[in-house]
Amino acid sequence: MGVGNYGRHSDSAIFENSVFYQQFVHDKIILPPKPLPGTEVSVPHVFVGDEGFPLQTYLMRPYPKSGVINNVRKKTFNRQLSRARRVVENAFGILAMKWRLFLRPIETDEGTADWIVKAACCLHNYIITKIGNRESVIETDEQVEPIRALAATTPTNRRSNAVAFEVREHFADYFSK
Hints:
Number of helices: 6
GO molecular function, one term: nuclease activity
Low-confidence stretches: 135-157
InterPro entries: HARBI1-like, HARBI1_dom
Radius of gyration: 18 Å
Mean pLDDT: 79
Domain DDE Tnp4: 3-125
Number of strands: 4
Organism: Acanthoscelides obtectus (Bean weevil)
Number of domains: 1
Order of helices and strands: HHEEEEHHHH
Helix content: 40-55%
Shape: globular
Cofactor: a divalent metal cation
Oligomer: single chain
Distance between the termini: 36 Å
């Protein structure tokens, strides 16, 4: 579990410097392609990113805004990708609602803060496993502002290869059906 990066680091830089990423791109972690549900089209497993990430065969980013204005298929893809990214971003909000200390800055040294976040994640997963998701939700009337788990990224202009564009097209076709 990678924690402990500051907001000044872009999401793509954090991802590319993670142990997971290094193992993944050096084929130490293999995720074999699989057909999309209800189709014969085999595509690689992918991660979702925003405009700050380069399009890769394993990492989908939205179509550029200028290219989706009159294209329903591309708009649909971008909307589905955005929904998937929101699920990831909401995970931190769920963690913060359960462990209220994440609603404000953690005033401790970086190493201790890393362990606090990791412990909260482990406890959260343990509770979900043992009790279930419904019982682990804290009921409250308190209004809490949404928390953005990842810092905003800036668009990247790193070149993608033709296969990455083809993978995105397969997903766009699938979401448009």
